[in-house]
Design goal:
This protein is α/β, with parallel strands linked by helices. It has two domains: 48-215, 3-Layer(aba) Sandwich (Rossmann fold), CATH 3.40.50; 235-300, no CATH class. 30% of the residues lie in helices and 18% in strands. The chain has nine helices and 13 strands. A four-stranded parallel β-sheet has the order 5-4-8-9, sandwiched between helices. It has a three-stranded parallel β-sheet with strand order 11-12-13, with helices on one face. Strands 1-2 form a two-stranded parallel ribbon. Helix 3 packs across helix 7 (207-215). The protein is globular. The termini are far apart. InterPro entries: DUF3326. It comes from Acaryochloris marina (strain MBIC 11017). It holds the Pfam family DUF3326.
Length: 319
C-alpha cells in the first residue's frame, strides 16, 4: 500500500509485530484515540525526525520479567538508535482485567488508572519526553480457547481491547503519542503455530515494535499549522474491514470527500457494514484489490472504467 500512497496513517495494532517491525517511511503510527480526533478534524498530525520516548513499567511486573523489558529497551537504543530517555515504574500495580463483549470483541479495565497518569505526567513535566510507551502486567491465560485460536491465526486478540483502553487514556489526557506492550510470561512452544502469530513468540517482550513505531510517530497539534502538517481534509481514501465501519473515524470521514474502501476478506466479530450505516463505499474482496483502487485514484483514473463492462453514455435516442 505504501508504494501507491503518498502517506499512510494507521494505528499501532496494524503496524506492531513484537520482535519484528519493518519501518515504512511514509506510514504514520497514530494511536486510536488520536486517530479518531484527527478524523473528526479536531487534531492535526505533525511529522517528527525523532521522538524522545519515556517508558512506563507497571509495578506489578515481576523482577525477572522487568529486567527482560529493560534489556529490550537497551537493545532498541544500542541497535536501532532509538532515543529512549527515561523509564519510570508506577507507584502502585495498575491492575489490568481482561473482558470480552457478547460480540466477541475484547476490552478491559484498569484498577489504578491514576497511577498510570501520575507516571506519564512525571515523564512529560520533569523529563521532557515526547512519546510514551506503557508496559502493563497482563493476566496469563495459557489455557484459554481465545489464546489458542489467536496462535492459530484465527479469532480475536484477547489483549488488544484492554491495550486500547490504556493508550486512549494517556492520549486523551495528554495529547501525546502513546502505545502499549503487554508484559506476559513466555508461552510454551507450539509446533503448529500460525506464521501470522510467530513474531510474537520470538522473544520475552512485545516492546521492540512499539518503541520503533513511537520513535517517529507524528505529534498531535491543535490550532496553528505548518506546511508539513496533515489534517482531515487532506485524506483521499480510507481502507477498512467491510464489517467494521462503525468507528468514530469512519463516521467522521464519511462526511468528507474521502473514498471509503471496504475489504470483505478481513473478517471481524463486528456487524457494522457500510450498507447498514448508510455509508457509500467501494467494496473490494481483498487488500490486493484495494491497492489497485488506490493506484487508480493516484493515477487519476475512474475506477469504474477498469471494469469489464462499461455502460455507454450515448442516449438511445441519439442512435
Amino acid at each position: 500500500m505504501s508504494m501507491v500512497c503518498d502517506r499512510i496513517i494507521t494505528h499501532p495494532n496494524v503496524l506492531n509485530g513484537a520482535q519484528l517491525y519493518w519501518p515504512i517511511p511514509n506510514a504514520w503510527y497514530v494511536e486510536g484515540y488520536g486517530l479518531d480526533q484527527f478524523a473528526a478534524g479536531q487534531w492535526g498530525l505533525r511529522p517528527v525526525h525523532q521522538n524522545h520516548i519515556g517508558v512506563v513499567l507497571d509495578q506489578a511486573i515481576e523482577p525477572e520479567l522487568r529486567l527482560r523489558h529493560l534489556q529490550a529497551i537497551d537493545a532498541a537504543r544500542a541497535t536501532l538508535g532509538i532515543s529512549i530517555t527515561d523509564v519510570y515504574v508506577t507507584d502502585t500495580p495498575l491492575g489490568v482485567t481482561l473482558k470480552t463483549a457478547d460480540s466477541g470483541a475484547t476490552w478491559g479495565t484498569l484498577d489504578q488508572p491514576d497511577s498510570l497518569l501520575r507516571a506519564v505526567e512525571h515523564l512529560i513535566n520533569d523529563r521532557s519526553i515526547s512519546a510514551i510507551a506503557v508496559v502493563a502486567r497482563f493476566p496469563d491465560d495459557l489455557d484459554s480457547d481465545m489464546l489458542q485460536a489467536y496462535r492459530q491465526g484465527q479469532g480475536v486478540d484477547a489483549l488488544a481491547g484492554a491495550e486500547a483502553v490504556i493508550s486512549h487514556l494517556v492520549v486523551q489526557q495528554f495529547q501525546i503519542p502513546c502505545a502499549h506492550a503487554p508484559a506476559l510470561s513466555p508461552l510454551p512452544l507450539d509446533p503448529h503455530l500460525n506464521p501470522r502469530a510467530a513474531a510474537e513468540e520470538l522473544g520475552y517482550t512485545f516492546l521492540p515494535s512499539v518503541l520503533v513505531g513511537l520513535s517517529r510517530a507524528p505529534q498531535f497539534i491543535q490550532g496553528s499549522a505548518q506546511p508539513t502538517d496533515l489534517w482531515q481534509d487532506q485524506v483521499d481514501a480510507v481502507v477498512v474491514p467491510a464489517s467494521a465501519c462503525g468507528s468514530g473515524a469512519i463516521l467522521s470521514l464519511n462526511a468528507t470527500p474521502a473514498h471509503i474502501i471496504t475489504v470483505m476478506d478481513n473478517t471481524t466479530t463486528m456487524h457494522a457494514t457500510a450498507q447498514s450505516l448508510g455509508i457509500e463505499s467501494i467494496p473490494v474482496q481483498s487488500y490486493a484489490e484495494a491497492v489497485g483502487i488506490l493506484a487508480a485514484f493516484k493515477a487519476g483514473v475512474d475506477v469504474n472504467t477498469l471494469r469489464p463492462d462499461i455502460p455507454s453514455l450515448i442516449p438511445r435516442d441519439m442512435l
